[in-house]
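Continued from yesterday's entry.
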Amino acid sequence: MAGNDIALEALGISKNFGELKAVRNLSLQVHRGDIYGFIGPNGAGKTTSIRMMLGLISASTGTARIFGHDIHKSFLEAISRVGAMVEGPAFYPYLSGIKNLEIYGALTGGVSRSRIYEALDMVGLGRRGKDKIKGYSQGMRQRLGMAQALLHHPQLLVLDEPTNGLDPQGMREMRNLIRRISQEERTTIFLSSHLLGEMEMVCNRIGIMYRGQIIKEGMVDDLLGHKTDRVVIRIDQDKDAKRLLEERYPDVNVQITKAGWLEFPHENLDTAGINRLLVEKGFTVHSLALLRRNLEEYFVELTGESQDVY
């Protein structure tokens, strides 16, 4: 892909803290228009990598480029088109959301009041902008952090763990917000998280980080594949149904994953025939689905471990 299509590029960056090698020879490319997922467990080195790529801390080796500008040699040019929320937003709690954004805007080159209201509307805080931050929920603070990152119409938005501390509804709202910003603002998004299920739903490309290194990078569909690899059935009398399937298909490992749910490898089985067999034997099949492996399963295949992966 042509160089002018690269929004963010890391070129062999490393970071050592004494004898600890926190990040080792990290290289990646984020293309214009991507929602790029930077994933891995807590402690993998994601935030340190982001801080190096944004020039917030120096790299021990290597460098990064943002829209072709070297972050060390041309910092202002590189960072001028970037909005970021790294390690959670920090605000003055006794000031309103609007006032906090006004202060930030004044410190970063100025921003119109109309853009402040536009950013608040974009993140769903249009009616709460005059309220003091101390009355905001965690989800509202995350939204305000997103509004702050959007103030200067960034072409690249960098978000570090934007769903931290959010409940499931808040996570869904943040996910929808990220999609909307990508589509409506035509913004390239670099999204870091350890919540692999969330990332699979929103990202088109991913880089998997583990123990300070990128171990895989590519399109989500290319990495996970298009082929289904397991069958999931919701059914009454799961134990009896399991016994029937094991008798008919002795080489298939049928598991009860939770009450009323069976799962087993696809292995080119005749799923229509399985459904027909169960119905003919008097079972009520509520659903039968063919699923491909998910991102968490893929991560475990690569690393052999699943600690701190959700």
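--- second protein ---
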Amino acid sequence: MKGKVYIVGAGPGAVDLLTLKAASLLRAADVVLHDDLVPQDILDLVRPLAEIVNVGKRCGRHGTSQQQINALMVECASRYCTVVRLKSGDPAVFGRLGEELDALREAGISYEVVPGVTAATAAAAAASFTLTDRRAASALVILTGHNCHGQSLSRTLLDPEQATYAIYMPGPDYGTTARELLRLGLDESTPCAVVSNAGREQQQTRFLALNELESVTGVAAPAVLVVGKVVGKTNFDLAPSSAQELFQLASNPRPFV
């Protein structure tokens, strides 16, 4: 029987900024595959009998390739019940999460993603300022200084085809939000996900194309709208010609009305 892989965010490095779920999984893990930046204080939470493997990659230093990490996760899931892939910050923010999820899906491995505090919010908290302020900043753009295409920051920032948009409080009129995004230059077939009550028992996620957003009603708050190609990197068929509405439910199988 194959084990389960938990892709866990270690946060910015302070033990007391770990989520309770992350700490619990570290104590229960049979094997932990961790990034190089994860400090020893966090690794000390791992039970003594567990195997701990550093699979880190650092700029300018040879390390484990992403392909090797993917293969190691799959191999460990065939030998262990609980596998923790421990990543710095939040796995979904510049953590190559998409590549690792693709590898696990291909191998038919059960997985779960456990979010962590990401570097941007940790830095703002440490320096006592806000990333958004209704009086000064109504948008937050998170960029990487290194991307696989070698594109400049200005190209990445301005190209809607290369960006992901996470929009807080997108409703109740999703049609207005969709029209604004179309005016920015996004294609009407761009994949979208509306996530309500993320991480809670009542969580609901609806996948659809940008031109279908106008039909969305009755979404429970709080909700976030995520728009971009990354949303389509799932096992769901998001072809714009399909009228089918797809739902992924965490616990409660009731769709949005």
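Residues 4-119 form a domain with the Cobalt-precorrin-4 Transmethylase; domain 1 fold (CATH 3.40.1010.10). Residues 70 and 103 are 6 Å apart (CA to CA). Will compare against the first tomorrow.
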